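Bumping my old thread because nobody answered last time. Still need a sequence for this structure:
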């Protein structure tokens, strides 16, 4: 495992992040403490130090397990958790969810207790609630950083205009700015390329994508081996619509040609994008996490990257397509866009 800087910061995190949403069994699809510890140990033994959880994951059990696992070497780990989702200890309190300051402060205190620590390395806004003023969020997060309870802040599942407005405000007012952006991103889901990813690169935000192997569908395990068409699929993945089934079949074709597992193809397609991409990987078994970590030793060739890009391309829409076509080329670049060497691309 190598290490990357977490966006515009000096914090060094492993090039993969362990997602711990499966730690605990309250939601019906996770793992018990013993198996969660095996997954954790496999990740740590490979050099991983970056851990991601949230206040609500398995009704708080994920945070409890993570806190127990890191207790003996707390300062070694980069511990990330989130707020916004309802507080598992007080689910009927209307102010125990959302982005507001009351939710934020109560959530931090409860997370610190479950985690058994006195500080959180990276505190995520889990999702934009569209109700709380941006300055309320940023000032509250800055107060947490100044108090020492939080070291860095990031934001997840939020429109690009909100993130850019928030970081610009923080820069101008001398508050702590976001250093990370968490988004869904995969060969199935490339819509973040329209605005979120260019915005993150412009602000030097580290991107920690979730859903990287499409809920397991990009491994090929949900494909019907007896049928080569795109419509017949096994039950088990909500992401396998007709288009995504075709993508999963293409990934399996590349896997058959190269001997590279489908999960590794999906993860390295992300890792080799422009910018700082640190995929979140999670599993219910230590065997699965070890298989996923093979991406560290099996980079994709430029030819494979191009084929994957072409097979999964999306329509960017307005204004992106308009600005790259005519008449924008003639009007804005004197018809010579191809002759301009742009070092920012």
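Sorry it took so long. Here it is:
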């Amino acid at each position: 495992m190598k290490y990357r800087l977490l966006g515009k910061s000096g914090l060094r995190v492993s090039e993969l992040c362990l997602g711990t949403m499966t730690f605990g069994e309250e939601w019906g699809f996770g793992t018990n403490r013993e198996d969660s510890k095996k997954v954790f140990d496999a990740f740590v033994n490979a050099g991983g130090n970056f851990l991601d959880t949230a206040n609500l994951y398995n009704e708080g059990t994920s945070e409890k397990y993570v806190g127990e696992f890191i207790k003996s070497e707390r300062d070694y780990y980069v511990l990330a958790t989130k707020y916004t989702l309802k507080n598992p200890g007080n689910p009927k309190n209307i102010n125990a969810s959302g982005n507001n300051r009351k939710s934020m402060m109560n959530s931090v205190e409860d997370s610190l207790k479950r985690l058994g620590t006195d500080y959180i390395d990276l505190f995520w806004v889990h999702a934009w609630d569209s109700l709380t003023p941006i300055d309320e969020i940023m000032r509250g997060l800055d107060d947490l950083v100044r108090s020492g309870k939080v070291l860095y802040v990031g934001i997840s599942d939020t429109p690009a205009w909100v993130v850019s407005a928030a970081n610009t405000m923080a820069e101008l007012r001398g508050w702590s700015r976001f250093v990370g952006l968490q988004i869904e991103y995969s060969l199935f889901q490339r819509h973040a390329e329209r605005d979120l990813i260019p915005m993150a690169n412009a602000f030097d935000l580290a991107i920690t994508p979730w859903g990287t192997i499409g809920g397991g569908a990009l491994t090929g395990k949900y494909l019907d081996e007896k049928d080569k068409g795109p419509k017949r699929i096994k039950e088990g993945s909500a992401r396998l619509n007709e288009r995504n089934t075709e993508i999963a079949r293409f990934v399996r074709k590349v896997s058959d040609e190269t001997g590279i597992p489908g999960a590794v193809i999906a993860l390295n397609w992300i890792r080799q994008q422009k910018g700082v991409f640190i995929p979140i990987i999670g599993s219910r078994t230590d065997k699965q996490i070890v298989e996923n970590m093979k991406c560290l030793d099996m980079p994709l060739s430029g030819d494979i990257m191009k084929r994957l890009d072409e097979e999964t391309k999306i329509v960017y829409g307005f204004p992106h397509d308009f600005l790259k076509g005519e008449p924008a080329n003639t009007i804005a670049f004197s018809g010579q866009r191809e002759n301009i060497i742009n070092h920012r691309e």
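The chain has two domains: 3-307, 315-345. Let me know if any region looks off to you.
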